[in-house]
Write a structure and sequence with these properties.
The chain is an alpha+beta fold and 233 residues long. It folds into two domains: 144 residues, Jelly Rolls (Sandwich), CATH 2.60.120; 78 residues, Orthogonal Bundle (Arc Repressor Mutant, subunit A). The protein is 41% helix and 21% strand. Strands 1-8-3-6 form a four-stranded antiparallel beta sheet. It has a four-stranded antiparallel beta sheet with strand order 2-7-4-5, with no helix packed on it. A three-stranded antiparallel beta sheet has the order 9-11-10.
Amino acid sequence: MNVFKLFRKNKLFANLDDKEINAIFDCLKGRIVKPVRGKVLCKEGDPVEEIGIILEGTCLKFITKSNGEREAREVLTAGDMFGEVEGYIGDKTMMYSVVASDDVTVLYITLSTIVKQCSKTCPVHQKVLENMLALLAERVSTLNKDTEYLIVKSMRQKIAKFVYEKYLEQNSLEIDLGMDRNEMAQYLNVSRPSMSREMLKMMNEDGIFKFRKAKLTILKLDEIEKIVNAIKI
């Protein structure tokens, strides 16, 4: 296992070389554990003292509704993390649970060691702190986008906005949606059947795009822009 390569999948270590990662590991009081499939890594309401970073394998992030039913929120894969937001806000408790979907390798980092400069005042630590600030800023930006989708009422406008943002992000008419239909419906906060019906209508009746699974090709960019420009936020 090339640990350094696995570390760099996470944005916290994105611009560090092997030597720098090795130097910062003890400074951050890092520890690596290997939970087996089905192991609960954290539960809603748990105090957050460490950030968990997935190095290998997959985990499922979920919440438990008042009726006891579990609702999946996100699949975490190599490079993803949990606790990075909750550890710095409010009462510092988890707002969701995380369970290992298969055998995983997880790096845990003590929260306080990231924001507090070490006694050596090493430049590597400064890089990690800057990466954390950039990561949290990205989370805020994503949250703002999520809020925008809640304001948009029309199903067609939600879909067009999502597709158009992917087009701008990837700079291509052939885009990767980055999620399956269930995940997309959850992201847009809509029901999957209603979303699928509208997408099929936009494809078969209006010829705006064509899609198969997570791949979508925009055929009428001007129509998507027209729909998006009509959104009032």
